[in-house]
Amino acid sequence: MNDNELIDNIANKEYEFGFVTDIETDIAPIGLNEDTIRFISAKKKEPEWLLSWRLKGYQSFLRQELPKWQNFELPAIDFQQISYYAAPRNKKKYNSLDEVDPELLATFEKLGISLNEQKVLAGVAVDVVFDSVSVATSYKEKLNELGIIFCSFGDAVQEHPELVKKYLGSVVPHSDNIFAALNASVFSDGSFVYIPKGVRCPMELSTYFRINAENTGQFERTLIIADEGSYVSYLEGCTAPMRDENQLHAAVVELVALGNAEIKYSTVQNWYPGNKDGVGGIYNFVTKRGICKGDHAKISWTQVETGSAITWKYPSVILQGDYSTGEFYSVAVTRNKQIADTGTKMHHIGRHTKSRIISKGISAGHGNNSYRGLVQMGPKAEEARNFTQCDSLLIGDKCGAHTFPYIESKNNTATIEHEATTSKIGEDQIFYLNQRGIDSEKAVALIVNGYAREVLNQLPMEFAVEAQKLLSITLEGSVG
Amino acid sequence: MIKDLTIPLYGELENGFDTLIAAAGRAKEGNEVLKGRKTAFHTFTERGFPTIKNEDWKYTNITRFLKDDFAIQTPPANPSTGLNAYVHPEPVDHALVAGAGIESLDCYQLTLVNGNLLSADGASHRLPEGIRLITIAEAVQDPGLAACFGHSEESEKYHFTALNAALFSNGLFIEVKAGFSLDKPLHIIHVFTSGYNLLVQPRHRIVVNRNASVTIIESVVGSVPEAKLFVNSLTEIVLEADSKMDHYLVEMAGVNSRLVQHTMVSQKKNSVYNNYTFCLQRSDLLRNELHVLLNEEHTETNLYGLYLASGNQLVDNHTFVEHRKPNCYSNELYKGVLSEQSSGVFNGKIHVYKDAQKTNAFQQNNNLLMGRKATVDSKPQLEIYADDVKCSHGSTVGQFSDEALFYLRARGIGEETAKGLLINAFAFDVTEKIKIPELEAHVNKLISGRIF
């Protein structure tokens, strides 16, 4: 089969020069081939080197097969049935909040999102009063003063090609895995952040406030570079339920922390999980990886995953610099027929590197939640240290919780600790709360929040409050 | 899957199977057994030998241990009944057998050479009435037992067990009668020896009937100074309701031997199975697979293991506990000391089925990395599909603290002795579980002898 595709490629090459890019068209024809990639690249006015990088990604995509090791049945994905480029679609605009789905509004209400934010999220035409634009502009000025670059990936390619060229694919190469290869060849847009030497970014950068914010769609690519001694905290996603027509999401996130730099990356993901029977829903197959390139660098991943039909990602850290630190904090909730296969990889290469993994899985309904993690101590990782804790909470007797930790040590001075527990919410705990007039649903929410506290505490403050509410809402109706 | 010519053994197996079957046929094996061998062989040829792409063999590259030319051991052609039938063709190193003996332990003792019962050992005659002990070569002729050796999904499940089910040569069939308790431990000494490259495939079956109990100690010794020996053994243990078995395994196989040993235990209601595995061997490769199926309620399972490795050794312990029914308890503790450039692998899997409510399953694995180039790969694994359970696992990799060493050194204890003390202390958690004092002393002595 692969041979045939290769032959097809060679055959298609004859048309290479005859191919005319139709700049006027906004949607690439369905299907994936080199022409699609050339079309996307031309559309975005990309330089030659980026196009050839995309094509290399496409070649490695063709070479790879879909993995089989995951702990769930991978749904059949027809890569030829996807449209790989569409200009930012105009969302349906409503005139007022009254027209918006009341269910959505109720959720906003529970999350405590302000009226103006609600309008933006639901796609209501924002009136002049709400000055999101001016907010964004004032932020932009402030960031510019400090020399921080925060823009869309497309802009970065045009304005800072030297930085993009230097770091693109340096952490997640185009051949990393089949989904990363797919992303490399067809990525639409994403965010780009560069923090100059010694600068501490004064605010949380988030896609929500992103300048030039546009719907970047299913193949996002994020690249964050923290130069020596700098600090940045980046937020991705939001607590509000996100609906999207695209089923497959294969994003790539690359983080580069140079000496003494610190990157904190927080994700709250609440994409459409499909209905009760597991029909529909997003496949969230993301490749996230960071590298601590210099000494004393630090990268920290925090994630709260409540949405998507399938969440499949392992945010990892390569600890190359001596004394560098990697952290991973995760809460993953699955209910109905949701599946989560998530965890992290910590590659200890440098001396005295440290890593800490805290993973909390919550399964309810027919949900299946797997933690899969790798802790690797290289031969030069003198005195390296790892601590891993992964706990699973089961709510209901039809769900599953699984742990697959891989521990590999090639250095006898390294120390690794791993512990995992699985249990259900104690009836006595619920009874205790019932006794005090708290109904079972609220009691579960309380217990779950207490259970996930260690991770939620890692989120930036305003996010943490929302995430906490999100957990309670997600688990609504799963008790009793 | 390895099927190509990089492994000459593979071709040899494929070509030689008919000859081997003919030998088995001469030995008057029942049709059912022969059919079982054929299906198992078919399964094996489909699968081939595992590679590191196979999840269960990720850390153990078996290819390099299979590369040599191996002759395949055939089943004895004409086993007459009676235990005195077999005489090993080559003289057996008596020092080896003596070394495996446990000082001042009152027990029943048997010796097997490459899976064949050694006749010189008259010990079996002294076994009480409550125990039936015959060789596998005899058992396969018994129509009543044919079902045990015929086609079975369970025994064909893995690469090496399928190969064994197809080509097993000999071994022991032990049945403890209902309600009988064996008064003394039964000590089985497995000797593996050969003057030329040989693949040995013993198969054993132990059945403990209702309300019966037994203690079995297995010691594995071997000497292959000039050739390579590959052992692929399969032991099936059936514990009927209310039965109990203490199972000790002392691995002491020598250099040039490679062992892949699969033990499959199935437990019925209220049964108790305790396994104690001590890997103190000098063999190039030791892979133990311990697979426990909890088929009925209220069972108890304790698995304790200790593994030491040095030089270029690879020691790999895979355990798999399947909680299929509610109210079962399993507990596991494995500890390892890896020195020089040896490698250790631990894979502990617990699977809790949907109906297995009220399951308690615990697992712990601790590793001490002594050598600069020693490596360890640990993969504790939980798969849980029931909610009312208590399961946990823990795994650590580290080295003993410099403070502890300094404390001992400051009191005038030499470095080597101090390290020995610390290793003994580390191993103590496992060795203290041994219920037979004589055996505990024996194992401790072996550990001390093994460290330096």
Outline of the structure:
The complex is a heterodimer of chains A (480) and B (452). With 480 residues, chain A is of the alpha/beta class.
Structure explained in plain terms:
With 480 residues, chain A is α/β, with parallel strands linked by helices. Chain A folds into two domains: 2-63, no CATH class; 131-428, no CATH class. Helix content of chain A is 28%, strand content 28%. Chain A is built from twelve helices and 20 strands. Chain A has helices at residues 2-13, 34-43, 48-63, 102-111, 115-122, 132-146, 153-159, 161-167, 178-186, 427-435, 440-456, 461-474; strands spanning 149-152, 191-195, 205-206, 221-226, 231-237, 248-249, 252-257, 262-269, 283-292, 298-305, 310-313, 316-319, 325-334, 339-342, 345-348, 354-364, 368-377, 385-395, 400-409, 415-424. Chain A has an eight-stranded parallel beta sheet with strand order 3-5-8-10-13-16-18-20, covered by helices on one side. In chain A, strands 9-11-14-17-15-12 form a six-stranded parallel barrel. In chain A, helix 2 runs antiparallel to helix 3, helix 7 (153-159) packs across helix 8 (161-167) and helix 10 crosses helix 11 (440-456). Chain A is globular and about 65 Å long. In chain A, 46% of the residues are buried. Mean pLDDT of chain A is 79; it is low at 6-25, 123-135 and 209-216. Chain B is built from ten helices and 21 strands. In chain B, helix 2 (31-47) runs antiparallel to helix 7 and helix 8 (402-410) packs across helix 9 (415-431). In chain B, a hairpin with a 2-residue loop joins strand 2 (108-113) and strand 3 (116-117). Chain B is globular, with a radius of gyration of 21 Å.
